Amino acid sequence: xTDKVKKEDLSMASxxxxxxxxxxTDRHCRYFHRLMSREALxxxxxxxxxxxVRGRALxxxxxxxxxxxxxxxxxxxxxxxxxxxxxxxxxxxYDEVNLNVGCPSDRVQSGCFGAVLMKSPYLVADxxxxxxxxxxDVPVTVKCRIGVDDQEPAEVLPAFLARMRDAGVTxxxxxxxxxxxxxxxxxxxxxxxxxxxxxxxxxxxxxxDLHLSINGGVQNxxxxxxxLTHMDGVMVGRAAYHQPYDILGTADxxxxxxxxxxxxxxxxxxxxxxxxxxHIAAGGKLAQVTRHMLGLFAGQPxxxxxxxxxxxxxxxxxxxxxxxxxxxxx
Length: 330
What we know:
oxidoreductase; alpha/beta; Four Helix Bundle (Hemerythrin (Met), subunit A)
């Protein structure tokens, strides 16, 4: 898909999505992921509304047309500013605008956005209402946690989902862990709080009119297929980054029912040649792209050498696609 995606097709694409991950899911990563799956929904790194509206850092919205279906995730907590940022994202051609209500990092808290907003559902409702007012036919969605700190998820989450539904949001992704805003680092918040899939499944039964995706701890496509018997969609984070082929390589066939044969891992690597050539010709460095490709052969013979050759050589002056060819498992 290279054109803007229809809303009903986007709903189908969100059966499997790759999570927004800071410093990871940039446009180079998304182009690479799109070679493995034509159908999965890809998310940008979080872009803050202040950076777009006050800082005019519009380069943060750059993407490749091949990335569709692609969604942008915004961070912020000021309704008018988020509305202005949403207008910029819509004008750029994104298929979806997502509001971050789940990131637990310190810098996000200090800006009063991310997971801390779980404590302010009325403010979040005001934000999405303002965003929806300017989004036209582009969906505005939310990614949240099941709760934060000492909140009781079984009470907080259904009230939050009801508030979002009443504000006009129809699609929400729930990270099935609490976020502890004090005492745990962002990395620890991705591992230590226990997953509560049962609660998220219960939310789907309680809100059949909402399109709900589950996120957190999904390691392979078997889990994705199992979760799709309970949920409308599954969002995969770190596994999709560190073992991208395991998640995306056969996803179009297994999750979306496509007949086309998947590219092999080698074919995916070789298909990056034109993109890498254009990037280097424009003044970019090989390592800016290949750092996202290190997990392509995860678990396969030759994976260690693939990672070593790229890690040691891609940052060097003059490094080009020939290094990728050299690194390929024999």
